[in-house]
Structure prediction request, 742 residues.
Amino acid sequence: MSYFVNVTLTGLTQGMIYAAFALALVLIWRSTRIVNFAQGSMAAATTFIALALVQAGWSYWLALVVALASGFVLGAIIERVIIRPVEGGNELNAVIVALGLFVALQAGIAIVFGSSFQSFPAPFGLEGFSVGDRRIALTPNGIYIIGAVIVTMLLLVALFRFTRVGLAMRASAFSQEVSRLLGVKVGGMLTLGWGLAAVVGSLAGLLIAGGGFVYPAYMDSLIVFGFVAAIIGGLDSPVGAIVGGLILGLALSYISGYAPRGSSLVTISALVILMVVLLVRPGGLFSSTTARRA
Amino acid sequence: MSRSSRRLVSVLAAATVVSALAACGGSDDGGGGSSSGGANEASAPGITEDTIKLGAHFPLTGVAAPGYSEIPTGLKAYFDYVNDNGGVYDRKVDYIYRDDAYNPSNTSTVVNQLVLEDEVFAIVGGLGTPTHSAVVDFLNAEGVPDLFVASGSLTWGEDPETNPYTFGWQTDYESEGKIIGQYIAENFPDAKVGLFLQDDDFGENGEKGIREYVDDQIVGAERYTPGNTNVGPQIAALQAAGADFVVGFNVPSYTALSQLTALQLGYKPQWFYSNVGSDPQLVGSLLNRFSQGKVTGSALLAGAYTTDYLPTVDEPDNPWVQKFQEIWDKYGEEGELTNYRLYGMSMAYTTVQALQAAGQNPTRDDLVEAIEQVGGDWKGPVLAPFRYSEKSHMGTSGMSISQLTPEGSAKEIQGVMTTDIGDAKIKEFDGKPTTPTENGIPDEEPYK
Prediction:
């Protein structure tokens, strides 16, 4: 029984990490209609900035704030300088540019911070809570991750649903021309969207890194799961991203824990889950419209 | 993946080669090599009158990079030292190593590059079981000597007919498993043993060896896939199975991950990490910064058992360690002499023995034949002799067992035992410890 609880809790925490990454993808999709393949490298870059500050003696929280701020700046600069020239053209162009950016940023991190494996501190404890005389696989740091992701999701829902800026962002992503005619500063909205998405991505990067190891490509394995989580959720719903992340995290944890040689089945299972979801609901579980092309 | 960082490393490696060549052109013959009179000829691909080109693949980036990326720096430092002291038959060794990020598809690419573009004479020290498995057929088909694979898989040495050009070097995982198994059976007969295994040859070979001695004590065997960093379900399963003695056949980063996960679960078995995953300095430094100092890595690992087939940096009185330290201080790059660099330097020592034994103007086949015929007699830093012959390309066969202290060093608790794969018995090693030559460079006679 305690084994089942531990496998579940491991999956829950892991799922929240996928969800954090999926949230960043959803945000950028809603605000620019681009699937940002460079998200992982961008998050890794800001995580390394935070790590450098922590190593220089800064507190975790100060480093977190600086990392999120630099994430915003990085996202905004990338949109203005690199993505803008291909925006509005062939959809594939932006995707290819993002992929190139993914590789370039990763190499940049290796040049600046080195490619060695380093541990990243966690702001809270890494020992599980005790229930009776047993310890369970839920740590104070795990609670922090879950809390941070849920708060971020609520903020995003609020932004898109209740603010004029959110509405303008959605409008400019959906139809640039119409928005412009209605007086929305489309360029500014796109930059803002990339900046905010990079902030959420940076947060995801830091949450994933905390109490684990980082190296320039540390986000690679999570990128796949993050994309799967986002697509399961429908790519434009923050709630969907969370649900997608949780479904994926739990399913993979059960497979890893109960299937024979489960650990080796994890990656392929993620793809099977993705395929099943897409076959049953091609738009994802939480898609609002079915006719929209992804 | 980290394609571009690999590119960068390639560029750097290429630059290193160019500068090494330039240095060769400028220097006169250093003398002191075991020259046998005749003129040097370009007797094989990768061999010129004054250079021998050797290649390797290592994980310089990625999940297996910690520790392992230091090994080629040790090899290079030792070769540089030899180059400055006469080289091998007055030839300088050019050691070109490229990054495969522990990803087998990258390994194929970089080894192709080494063999077809760089035209190396031999591959020396290619690291990793899954990675090297991807290129072993290619190297044997091309007839490229594939020396001293940095992995204890049985594949490299058990069947010289299939892989005539490939040689192992370190103690194979099955022999290691047997020695570990016997130790547990004798000293912990009541322990409930759990296995934490990498899901490939590494874990399988080790498990096979251990099961020969403690099969009835094993309560669970859990496997992880490299790259999947969530080992929560696996460690929780060992805990649920009631294992109070866990043997890990895993790479160093997974030692750290297993310790972290066990900490999370409040799971405190007796740990025994096989040689590969146990380096206390490395694992300690990985774990140290967590919880901002609340957890210290070397303390987490204190009391864990591990095995050795080489002297370690914890033995400053060992003549091999002293010699390698001296060479490292002068020829090494930044950083301390670590056990990984010591490993690289020891392997480079064996490589120089092989090149000397192959003769002044060797072909690739001469090198292979030399190792088969005289390699079993070589004295070097490894604790027990190599098993090289026409029938076996297995490396050394012996291991000692030590326990880690809270300070992060290792204390020997069982001397060197030797064995072989299959049903070979375990024997206490009765040979004497070896010492290096005066200048730390071997002096082997040509085998023919």
